[in-house]
Amino acid sequence: MPTASSVHPLEQPHSGRLLLCASLAVFAAAMVGILLRPLGYLSVFWPANQIVLVLLLRYPRLMRPVGLAALFASFVLADLITGTSLWLSLGFTTANLCGAACGWLFLRRQSQRDLQMEGQYSALLVFFASGMASLVSAAIGGPISAWAFDLSMRQGLLMWWTGEWMNAMVLLPFLLALPSARSSGAKQERQSWALKLLPALAVVGLEMTSYMVGNKVGSLVFSLPALLWCALSYRILTTAIITMVVFVTKVIVISNIVGFIPANVLDVASLRLGITMLILGPLSVAGSHAARAELLHRMRYQAHHDSLTDVLSRNGFVQASHALLKRLTHEGSSAAVLMLDLDHFKRVNDNHGHASGDRLLRDVSQVLTESLRPQDVLGRIGGEEFAVVLPHISFEDATAIAERLCHTVRSGRFLTAHHEPLQATLSIGLAYKQTLQHGDSLEDLLREADLALYQAKAQGRDCAVWTAPLSAA
């Protein structure tokens, strides 16, 4: 499995700049949490610990002593500026960092897709990891808060544990999914903006209804169906953002009604655990939906690509070429079709083994792919035979490409499976149509190119041959 250093393939900044940026981010998050703190008690919403956890996952160098010291100092500085005593700040900061380190130890070896919330069990992994991290943090911070705020040990542990776990489930999925916004996730079907906005509008409507109903137990879950709709309609990052906004709003609104204070410890703990469990629903659905989309994408890819060379398989080439030629015919444009055959390929298998033959096919496929234009269609249609469709091309350019492919393979440096030098050449047949018309089929063009290929072999191989009558048609 990938280690933490490969979870987010982003360029890591210079160490000094990394420490500064990480420290500022944690300091700012801690200040936000302190501003949301009820008078004389712990914060209602504390984002700093989750930011620390994500920073540790993205930049493992922060786990070194100097990195941990910088993060520790950021927490303490925020506390001291806002009037918290030094000893209390040291205790709370130790609890915060120990919890983040516990979450890091569990999550750092998970797959990249799971750490981007795109795996089938991503939400459950985050759920259990944040639960364990919250327990470790509460084991340290709970007794300290009980002593600081004159609570019983049970009250201190409950308030810290439930608050930390709820904060993690609200914020951590969003932070983990954030980098995947730049990745090429599964494409959604094109829809009008109105249809795309319906799930989000449903969330807004149900949330407003829940607040109109008032402080009722059932109103907490009013928006759950709409959140599940979002999970099935949007990418994981969008779902994580909507879920985070919904439940952060709930926490802030409910905290003003119930009062997140020691006198209401059981109600507050129950509410926080309820929110934590509710968040798991839409995030689990979104992760499963993303995993299913990725699986379907892989299956489609495997169905249309050759497993050895990674170019289009015969079936994939035929489908792609039919679609391309149909569009070119509608436009009245030109096209060339090439049939390519590796010369004396059987000798490679007989003299050097099938592993060397497989390696040669892979290497030649890569050379062909790099030599063709992005709009050209390349496929392996059997054994050592390949085919290419060149759209929007003149006859002169098509023959130049065919000759260039021969030259590139002839001068290429290929190796056997035992790293011995290997010589390879291509024979190519070309068929050309200056203006595609209805009735011009892929099969006819391949047949003409195949006839030209036989002529190339008859002329001694390692050359390209084209048929003038078809090119002039």
| Mean pLDDT score | 85
Distance between the termini: 57 Å
Helices and strands, in order, run as HHHHHHHHHHHEHHEEHEEEHEH
Question: Shape from CA axes?
Answer: elongated
Q: What's the number of extended β-strand segments? A: 7
Multimeric organization: single chain
Main sheet attributes: strand count, strand direction, barrel closure? 5 strands, mixed
**Alpha plus pi helix count:** 16
| Strand order of the biggest β-sheet | 2-3-1-6-7
Protein name: diguanylate cyclase
InterPro entries: Diguanylate_Cyclase (IPR050469), GGDEF_dom (IPR000160), Nucleotide_cyclase (IPR029787), Rev_trsase/Diguanyl_cyclase (IPR043128)
Enzyme class: transferase
Keywords: Membrane, Nucleotidyltransferase, Transferase, Transmembrane, Transmembrane helix
